[in-house]
Write a structure and sequence with these properties.
The protein is built from seven helices and 15 strands. With about 280 residues, the chain is α+β, with helices and mostly antiparallel strands. The protein has two domains: about 5-120, 2-Layer Sandwich (D-amino Acid Aminotransferase, Chain A, domain 1), CATH 3.30.470.10; about 135-285, Alpha-Beta Barrel (D-amino Acid Aminotransferase, Chain A, domain 2). Strands 7, 8, 9, 10, 11, 12, 13, 14 and 15 form a nine-stranded mixed beta sheet that branches. A six-stranded antiparallel beta sheet has the order 2-1-6-5-3-4. The N and C termini lie far apart (about 45 Å).
Amino acid sequence: MEVKDYFCNYNGHLISIYEPVVSFANRAFRYGDALFETIRVINGKAMFLNDHLRRIKLSMTILRMNVPGDFNTENISRLISDLIKQNNIENDVRVRLTIFRNEGGFYTPKVNDISFLIETEDLEEKGAYTFNEKGYAMEVFHDIKKHKNKLSNLKSGNALLYVLAGIYKKDIKMDECIIINDDGNICETISSNIFIVKNGALYTPALSEGCVEGVLRKQIIKIAQENRILCYEIPIVFNTMMNADEVFLTNAVKGIRWVEQYKTKTYTNKMALYFLDKLNQLIEE
């Protein structure tokens, strides 16, 4: 059977995914010296691309990586569009943009220049963000706590905490797991930021609690402010979960996912549906 060729973009050049890109000396492979973004493309448009690139360029600065002068929204958007066209896939796509420091050196790098890789994956879900009909069931991953430091908010190649939490989630047959920080407070989930609703107000862990600075998290907070909904970015203890009316999760690819159950507590989804509607209005605009 003939295998269809499929392409990725490596440093601005389209190459087959069957060609070797990463060498044995690659620093992402050796040391996790890398960052990444997952971007949702809807109707051919990369959603919230400005925010994705702002975050990754800030992260590159924190990691002392050199930011190329042409690493901007216009160029990256064009490269994504060209890759989607080359791969002849639908306009609703999951894109992964990976940044890694160029090879050389051991723990101490020889250079701070970077390379990048763009990959695409066709999505079954087409058009606007949709809602999960069945709410998630969640549990807490207790084995490893997430440290609170200036690396905590980055989406880096160092993802062992999330890998182990994902294995635990699979073992206990849950939809998601809550990651906790050094203080034992709620931080985030394996792949999403978390929002808690109580008496019509939103509560979400502050960035100082160690959560990833999510692109959709930013949009939800902005929507709340524009619609005069109180939103508190604070430390969140587990008693808050047991007293909540709703819990929902956000990430850039899936959008909003509502949680139905945590231990013996069940939740509704009225506020989650409200924010989903507002989010899809942004897409239409």
